[in-house]
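Sample entry (233 residues):
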Amino acid sequence: TIKEDLQKALGINFSKSIEARKLNNAINLSRSTNKPTKGITVLDFDDTLATSKSLIRFTKPDGTTGTLNAEQYASTYQELTDLGYKWDFSEFNKVVGGKVAPLFNKAMKLQGKFGPENMFVLTARPMEAAPAIFAFLQANGLNIPLKNITGLANSTAEAKANWVAEKVSDGFNDFYFADDALQNVKAVKNMLNQFDVKSKVQQARVKFSNSMNENFNDILENVTGIESEKRFS
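Predicted structure, serialized as tokens:
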């Protein structure tokens, strides 16, 4: 079947929410002739559109608790979940200390050229985070509609690839996708390569020079007790 062929090609298993009917529809739409161009921009939030100090709290099976930042959560979610970690996203529903990140300026240019209607935010944060993300984007001039912000509450590459496949079945055939996590970029690229659609997939990178001062100040805070936000002449 198409679903089995795609699973074999991509090396991932589709969640049950992706029905074979939708995948068949996606294949048929992508291969149909004389179809009008329907573009879509799909952007991750953390470390792509924004950086923040929002943390995800966890509880280990032995009761030990701790926190992870967005990058740590994205890279270890599946492994730690399999080990029995329980997650608390209450703080991750907020954008704490948010600042614009590498792809924000590009998103602004895309908004100016094509408008925000077919721009989407696809994040591993829970859906409850959508209003906070919407407010942050609005405050910085990016007017992506609230209904276009999807919180998957899932950090796996499979979840993002599945979502993109559904958008192919909705008739989109010209994709721009950006994410800071390499595994997500690879999964989405592999997915889109299975369809007859135009696509550009990009990994967003936070330049070391942009974060070096902040990280160094945080280290100094831990050593000296001087708050990292303090500035001296």
